[in-house]
Amino acid sequence: xxxxxxxxxxxxxxxxxxxxxxxxxxxxxxxxxxxxxxxxxxxxxxxxxxxxxxxxxxxxxxxxxxxxxxxxxxxxxxxxxxxxxxxxxxxxxxxxxxxxxxxxxxxxxxxxxxxxxxxxxxxxxxxxxxxxxxxxxxxxxxxxxxxxxxxxxxxxxxxxxxxxxxxxxxxxxxxxxxxxxxxxxxxxxxxxxxxxxxxxxxxxxxxxxxxxxxxxxxxxxxxxxxxxxxxxxxxxxxxxxxxxxxxxxxxxxxxxxxxxxxxxxxxxxxxxxxxxxxxxxxxxxxxxxxxxxxxxxxxxxxxxxxxxxxxxxxxxxxxxxxxxxxxxxxxxxxxxxxxxxxxxxxxxxxxxxxxxxxxxxxxxxxxxxxxxxxxxxxxxxxxxxxxxxxxxxxxxxxxxxxxxxxxxxxxxxxxxxxxxxxxxxxxxx
Amino acid sequence: xxxxxxxxxxxxxxxxxxxxxxxxxxxxxxxxxxxxxxxxxxxxxxxxxxxxxxxxxxxxxxxxxxxxxxxxxxxxxxxxxxxxxxxxxxxxxxxxxxxxxxxxxxxxxxxxxxxxxxxxxxxxxxxxxxxxxxxxxxxxxxxxxxxxxxxxxxxxxxxxxxxxxxxxxxxxxxxxxxxxxxxxxxxxxxxxxxxxxxxxxxxxxxxxxxxxxxxxxxxxxxxxxx
Lengths: 429, 226
Hints:
heterodimer, A: alpha/beta, Fumarate Reductase Iron-sulfur Protein, Chain B, domain 2, four-stranded mixed β-sheet, 52% helix, B: alpha/beta, Rossmann fold, 2 domains, four-stranded parallel β-sheet, 6 strands, 47% helix
């Protein structure tokens, strides 16, 4: 019996009764839809951009080993340190080791799904380091000990009223549910953390191989701050993020942005190419002026090579993580991303979970999908998630990781001739 | 559908007890081997009837026959053509074989079934049928065609997590259909009809929305033609 699915279904049903979530998702879905449509109307070249990005990603994934080698060589030539981590544990251990070597007590982080994937915060905190998330949404959920419910909007399951409650508790005084006041609290509180941090950890939205340039897309300015103020910057990202050139990476950024937030351009795109440097004194090259003296780039495999080499699922590696598929998914609209996730969320998240965390973790996610294809239609790269979901279900069936209802339905189709298991009375024709 | 076939005056038969599921649920649930075997059986059963054309009312069956059967059976085309009921109706309205009565005034909208719209690219045919009906005022939902929200029943979700499936249909009715102030939402899929009817009746009961009929386009056309 598939008791795991019963308890998952129970959690999901309970989540659907969550009144805060209901309000939050209703507000979010409407605003996202309007903003994205408005942005695309002002981007006449959008279709050209997204088709070109599909070509770029297809080529990049087919040449991933060469591109990774290029990033490594170019970064090392600039005085940076490159590390290729095969597993989640390997990656987290390496980052922890670098932090320990620098006697890091305080670490600031900007938003990164890959560090969620490898449970980096848990590892660092267990070594006695203080880790502070600086993206507003990530900070909110860190204060609440929750996990991100959306890859772009980690705290989207909360209303402004809930955020006000959380901040009031942290500050010990009553705060109104006015976003501008709540943002000011974050600004004041986090400023000292940026200045005093020993290490800044970030992700990367895309990486250009020809110059080893890290692209970080953001609006708040926290990623700039946390990758610039501390003396050490560690960037943790996935191997699939590498594209050949800076121009390609910019094109990816231009496609990610309207789909993520409905903007034509984000407020900031940081392009980081090696550690901070100067040659102003007698042309003598010196690293680390106002920015970090040390730059580490950790690229994580953790199942990605397996995904890329599996013809049924290779397309999932093209994902640029814009989150459009989640933002307009009819299932996400009802349940959000807390229960319908392991680390990665939703339909494409089910595919990613299979490779990064295992078939068993992906099972409940795969069976929470109507395969309606809205994700494929909105995806700038037209990634065929619904087909991959049915292929994933095939593997789950073979592994026996399916709800009881699946077996019953299959049996009904084969024996009675319909999925419902009823014998129809057809003689009136 | 049978009544429409009679109106058009076409020679047809039904499989009755020999009818089997097309096997689409098996694909959705990952039983590819079972699907392949079933596809062979179904093609054998239908071929033995010596028919040129199969009409199906279900977008899932339509997609299954046209997209998945040739793939798993390794053939270019099946020994018979499979069309969707909307294609049949559209053709016969065009040919003048289906003629409209003076119907009642209705304000309606159309819900795109995922397997007919996004997965098979049939968006215009049902709309052309609906806009050709006299006295009917057709309005489009904001989320339509490729942006249509699912009714919630796809992917066997209606059987796996019925609460969630119903909740999706409530949102479709409440957020997308209801603001249009229509008398009825028309669709072209038996599963969408079932699920949206749940959504409409629950919306009526718990959200105090006005009553909205959910009809399959086949029912509507049969009602409104001579």
